[in-house]
Amino acid sequence: xxAHRSEVFSNSLKQVAxxxxxxxxxxxxxxxxxxxxxxALESAVCNVVHEGDHVVVVVTGVFGERxxxxxxxxGAHVHRLNIEWxxxxxxxxxxxxxxxxxxxxxxxxATYCETSTSVLNPVKDLxxxxxxxxxALYIVDGVSCIGGVPANMxxxxxxxxVSGSQKALMLPPGLAFVAVNKRAKEAIKNGPEKRFYxxxxxxxxxxDEAVTTPxxxxxxxxxxxxxxxxxxxxxxxxxxxxRHEVLRNMTRAGVKALGLPLLVENxxxxxxxxxxxxxxxxQAGAIKKYLQDHFSMVVASGQKQLKGKIFRIGHMGYxxxxxxxxxxxxxxxxxxxxxxxxxxxxxxKKAEEAWKAHx
Amino acid sequence: xxAHRSEVFSNSLKQVAxxxxxxxxxxxxxxxxxxxxxxALESAVCNVVHEGDHVVVVVTGVFGERxxxxxxxxGAHVHRLNIEWxxxxxxxxxxxxxxxxxxxxxxxxATYCETSTSVLNPVKDLxxxxxxxxxALYIVDGVSCIGGVPANMxxxxxxxxVSGSQKALMLPPGLAFVAVNKRAKEAIKNGPEKRFYxxxxxxxxxxDEAVTTPxxxxxxxxxxxxxxxxxxxxxxxxxxxxRHEVLRNMTRAGVKALGLPLLVENxxxxxxxxxxxxxxxxQAGAIKKYLQDHFSMVVASGQKQLKGKIFRIGHMGYxxxxxxxxxxxxxxxxxxxxxxxxxxxxxxKKAEEAWKAHx
Lengths: 359, 359
Known about the structure:
Chains A, B: Its cofactor is pyridoxal 5'-phosphate. 2 copies of one chain form a homodimer. Chain A is α/β, with parallel strands linked by helices. The first copy, chain A, folds into 2 domains: about 5-235, Aspartate Aminotransferase, domain 2 (3-Layer(aba) Sandwich); about 235-355, Aspartate Aminotransferase, domain 1. Chain A is about 45% helix and about 15% strand. In chain A, α7 links the parallel β7 (about 135-140) and β8 (about 160-165). In chain A, α3 (about 35-45) packs across α4 (about 60-75), α10 (about 220-235) packs across α11 (about 235-255) and α11 (about 235-255) runs parallel beside α13 (about 320-340). The longest helix of chain A is centred in the last third of the chain and has 21 residues, at about 235-255.
């Protein structure tokens, strides 16, 4: 450890805050908070939403619902646009919903990658609707995809974009990231009283003054973030984005070849960072267990209404095509074992074809 | 990294939550939050203090003032008991202050070790006053000393005791700890609406259900905390406490021998974890710089009204008597260089005498 008020730490933080700017597609240094992704979500609420404000939350899964819950805990009138889980929100759906509201809306919340379903919402198209139909702030949760997908806050018309360290940004959990544009900064300045640790003014002011943090930062994780920025630079940001698309395409091609249904049927709605698989019957748990028991390979379970119905394959951050080959091989062996089918090589073959198209 | 919803992580968290119980002197598992120490302070405010509540904050330095600021940001009427910086709060002072208030007090806040001055407040004696004179909750900031000083929430009548990972608990920053007793749990259940990430009910309920966290925990730091608990067990908790007393006594004896004034004059008010030195004139900065330039040794500056007037020597966590010998040797060389005095060996000699008394 080094002292967190030292020049060496300040330099590291400066690297992270500025080198993440293209990754978030922002023109302002990215704010770093010690906390889980949820602390970033809450900061995007408690700094701009006043008690009694009307807000719209696009709910496509667990994390859209979390945004709604946070808004409710701060006394907002929450209008949920509930979308069937496994499907992305269409811009037309949002437009119709917004036009149906009587009260002016303070903010519209959306989830970029809804990690609970592996849907990637079309946040650019949704942003265009928000700005055409309302004067609302547009606030996006990018926790499970930023670092693996393109983001351009100006082009997408996003005012606040938040993320966490432990997904495509390849770090252990414990760092939250918040990118705000100039309009959001103004709203934050005039935000509610009841905030202290998550008061973004404190973080923004600390950058203006000396590139430091208002409260003791998680030094080891910031050092890690500096290395992550270096890795992204080394690979090239465009190549990182392309690699994630390849990983998604390989995964989907392989899973389909195995005859396992994908939760997200529409290719255009599928996240480049995670893929949810919905096997027939109750096999999700059995497949997850087989992978764990035989290969110490961890896939994630479903959450809430999808509990027991899906498993999710993460393919983000430092994941490579060979990692996808490995998980598909493991799936071939699991399906062979559980269903007695001749599966060896069939998923890998399709994944290789999907990979070759990009090489 | 491992999946944070895995059994291996749950087991690690369970170890940390229970093995820290004697360190906090609590009968309940210690809550772990991803955040800075200030997030722990805020959790102790926002879960129990309602808008309009009257609260008392004992302010003996920067971190007492921080408690007061947090309470104000949540709309409390804050009654500050301001104590001269460098001095501990006497129980009689608190008793007189509390008896002078007209309104019933919801909570009394105190700082165990005020790290900005290196004062250790007599939190047990203050607790006795709080409970004799009021019905208030008694809430203590133990960030810069828990893990290096005794704590017994029942005996000291503390309802909420908070700390952080990066001081005497020897970890990188990024973990906040909160210990609550049964009475505090009740208050937290009936706490204000406007909280989500720092809503302690969520953390307490997660322990009751499956020993997990409501939001993604900082896995690497929790693994570190497990090792910290093992180290404390290995040394023996009583020995850890004794070692910190020895470190303080050695440091104070050595600094005095060098003719450098201590900010905390009264030995009984001095923290076992940190010692503030207040050299005559403007030498604090010069000494700090000498240590940094010649030995890459970092002592901390003064904060706020003590800026430029003091430097602070940390002697906590994994610090050993030999670390104190080293910093005193460095100070001897600094004072020799800056003042031309024959200082070699004189601080070390006194420190050895203080050490010998405990060996």
